[in-house]
Design a protein that fits this description.
With about 375 residues, the protein is of the alpha+beta class. It contains eight helices and 14 strands. β6 (about 170-175) and β7 (about 180-185) form a beta hairpin. α2 runs antiparallel to α3 (about 75-100) and α5 (about 260-270) crosses α7 (about 340-350). The structure holds heme C and copper (II) ion (CU).
Amino acid sequence: MSYTLAEQSWLSKFIFRAAPASDSAAWSDGLFMMIFWFSTFFFVLLMVLMVYWTVKYRRRPGVPAPVSPHHNTPLEIIWTVVPSSALLVIFILGFQGYLSKTVAPTGALELRVSAWKWGWAITYPNGAQSPETKFLEESADGTVVGNKYPIFYVPENTAVSLRMSSQDVIHAFWIPDFRTKMDVYPNRFTGYTFHTPTLGLEEEVFDETVGQNIPGRDMWVFCAEYCGDEHSRMAATIRVVPQFIYEQKLAEWNAPKDPVELGKQIHEGRCAICHSVNGTPGTGPTWKDLYGSQGLMSDGSTVLKDDNYIRESIYIPAAKIVAGYAGNMPSFQGQLDETQLDGIIAYMKTLSQHAPQPAGSDTGAEPATESTESQPNETTGGGQS
Ligand code: HEC
Ligand SMILES: [Cu+2]
């Protein structure tokens, strides 16, 4: 079942660009090309006959127009049966391809995909999520452009099945190399399956976390259902790696992390598309100096942006809308747990001059330790009980 890269003809390169990365992707290409040549053949045949007969039977002076024959049973049977059987063949081959992409083999690795405006997250069977990201593109002088996008690791030569749902509007999870895309809905699961390729000996990708190349292949993921302003930048990377690297990564991601580091990673992967940290407003307000500040809401009230306000903004964004913004932040209820929420708050504190500074120092503050200050119950509780 493992698919190795075949030589692509110039025509299939022109039409599909990247080579198919699995057997069922190759099947789709083959079927597409079959239909293409089938259509081309009949197009040429019909056009040639049409032109030929138009010339041959044109009106000539002195020749009376012949009466059209109105029935020819053998001819009508042929031109009904031949095209119908051709369509039947196309249907059967297409349905076979469809089944191979929607029915997961037993024992497939199930990944939980979640979508929102404008990003993707995958939860692995052990509960881990990939914190790794990379830039969509880098300009020639090495300066980076745009946002960071998540990297999802999958093991090579493995059947993978996706279970997908959306936090807001309809998106579509599209992996061009597998020639498959499927809509992702807010209130129901959809999914499909693919078999990851076996890596060639020379295939390598750069792993930023270890600063060197590792065996692997990157594939694009795009959103294929127009979903708003940043739809075209709703991308991700599927990274196919050997099984042992996949397992290492899962174990690494599940290890406890420094809260600030965790918050920063969540921001880059999920929030940066709308929230900057440098003071520039985007689709949502910047996080710079947000924590601990006072802010005006769209109903005219003023709120203190403390831990509980932030929690509410993330789980129930519609509860209070910041003045001047549309209430279009997706809810992350059920998507981010308490540890991740703590991480986001810890990270926001490092970005804000309103956050309480650790006692006795105002330079070189160690941000991670200050989170205890926001939980007075814990610090005072010991002396009182
Ligand atoms: C689709 C764009 C979008 C994404 C993605 C998004 N937000 Fe928001 N966010 C908004 C908008 C718009 C507002 C302002 C309106 C409101 O209050 O709901 C906002 C408001 C907030 C606020 C209140 C800000 C303030 O100044 O009072 C917080 C906190 C927040 N978002 C956290 C997050 C976190 C954490 C994430 C990532 C897990 C995230 N947001 C992802 C659009 C987004
Ligand atoms: Cu989308």
